[in-house]
Specification:
273 residues; mainly alpha; 3-stranded mixed β-sheet; 3 strands; 54% helix; globular
């Protein structure tokens, strides 16, 4: 019987490493529900860390981050100022200061251990491996530059090695917090529009994130309104987005229209709200 259990546990671990899938009943592990939960979590995460270390052996994150909080605030401040009234900006920025986690070789093991969900840990492992140029745990694993889980964003440091003119994965992932975080959680009162920081239509959430990402780069690179319009006219969504959940023509139009007004963030919000 022990050999059968060990073989079944080994099979569950192998399935998890190759697919990210787990048995919600943890039937392969012996004991009560609580004991099975504790044992399966420990063994799955230990195996995941071991496999990540094996695949990434000899590779390290290339860019150390000296002051990630200052970097995040610099990137997201224009977006927060454009989307929120003055009375709410400080509360939102304070939350965002601690919401972005950059995945590095130095913190990946701890991040994998502390994730609430096994699937999230598996996705983070693949995100890290991809940032190192290593093979993923599965050929079917999605290639990600960032991942949002409730009010935390995980971003690959490989982002800083790229020179794409309209890419900013920090802004992209942070924008998802606005529809994942309740106003009450940051000390703001509920409004007639709802309990979330921003009321974003469910089917427009990725459109909103990509539009914020591209427009943030337009604002960052242009010195004046004519410069913004010039840059936005050169934005083509099909060159920067392959997400099937996004209407590329609509995304291109939103970014260009946002660049034609002083506060383009409001144009993006209205288009996706």
């Amino acid at each position: 019987m022990p050999a059968l259990i060990a073989s079944t546990v080994a099979g569950e671990i192998e399935r998890y490493l190759r697919t990210g899938q787990t048995d919600p009943y943890m039937a392969a592990w012996p004991g009560t529900w609580g004991e099975r939960a504790q044992r399966s979590r420990h063994e799955l995460r230990t195996a995941l860390i071991r496999e990540v270390n094996r695949i990434s052996s000899g590779r390290r994150s290339a860019i150390p981050l000296q002051d990630s909080m200052a970097l995040v605030r610099c990137k997201v401040r224009p977006m927060v100022h454009g989307l929120f009234p003055p009375s709410e900006r400080d509360a939102v920025l304070t939350v965002l200061d601690h919401s972005v986690v950059f995945i590095t070789s130095g913190n990946i093991e701890q991040l994998l251990l502390e994730q609430r969900w096994d699937r999230t840990a598996w996705n983070l492992a693949n995100l890290h491996l991809d940032s190192l140029g290593a093979e993923l745990l599965s050929p079917d694993a999605e290639r990600l530059d960032g991942l949002s889980e409730e009010t935390t964003c995980y971003v690959s440091t490989a982002h800083f090695e790229r020179q794409e003119p309209f890419a900013d994965f920090v802004v992209h992932e942070v924008s998802h917090i606005f529809h994942n975080c309740k106003r009450a959680n940051v000390g703001l009162s509920r409004t007639r529009r709802g309990e979330w920081l921003l009321d974003i239509a469910f089917h427009k959430r990725e459109t909103f994130a990509y539009a914020c990402e591209a427009y943030s780069r337009v604002v960052e690179r242009a010195r004046d309104m004519p410069g913004r319009r010039w840059l936005a006219e050169r934005f083509e969504a099909r060159d920067h987005c392959s997400d099937l959940r996004v209407d590329l023509g609509e995304l291109t139009t939103i970014v260009r229209e946002a660049a034609r007004v002083r506060n383009g963030w409001r144009v993006i919000l209205k288009s996706c709200g």
